[in-house]
Amino acid sequence: MENKRLMLVIGVIVIIVVGVIAVGLTMSGNGDDDDNKEEEGETPTGVTVTAEQNGETITLAAGGTLQIELKANATTGYEWMLESELDEAILKQSGEPEYILPEVEEGEEPPVGAGGTSVWKFEAVGAGEQILKMVYVRSFESEEEPEELFSITVTVE
After folding, report:
1. I want to staple 72 with a disulfide (CB 3.0 to 4.6 A). Which of 43, 49, 118, 127 is the partner?
2. Fold classification of 46-156 (topology level)
């Protein structure tokens, strides 16, 4: 009787463990939760770039999205401006740039003078190549050299 009860308990534990593993594998899919990640031989449909990709070539599928996130500090008067003229048959800007303040604890304000992030969104319209040049400038100082430059080449397939 003791052996039957022990075997029953062990059997239940094994079933629970197998069930938990099965649920975990089902919820994690193939381990790739990002639908925009590039599969071997496929062109990504969504890419986010930062200053680390300055000077690089980015490849997107037509219909895909490009998001550029650059550090900025609006309190200094500097802002990122698009210097390139866009060929909207290849790449078009989606809305106005957004300035995002740094995250702070709930109920707190960001410190005065804290920097943030300038976020620019673009849509890949059709096949071609577009050079995106951006400058970090004070709009009221037109004679001054840009504080920073950012440039990428976008290839739409």
Report:
1. 118
2. Immunoglobulin-like (2.60.40)
Which pair of tokens denotes residue 17?
């463990």
End-to-end CA distance of the chain: 70
pLDDT tens per residue across span 52-79: 999 999 999 999 999 999 999 988 999 9
Structure tokens, 20: 């938990």
Dist CA 51 CA 109 (whole Å): 26
SS3 51: helix
Which segments within the chain are labelled E, that is strand?
46-49, 57-60, 65-72, 78-82, 91-93, 98-100, 116-124, 128-138, 148-156
Whole-model pTM?
0.70
36 phi, psi to nearest 5 deg: -90, 0
**15 φ/ψ angles, rounded to the nearest 5 degrees:** -60, -40
In 3-state terms, what secondary structure has residue 56? Answer: coil
Alpha-carbon gap, residue 23 to 100, rounded angstroms: 37
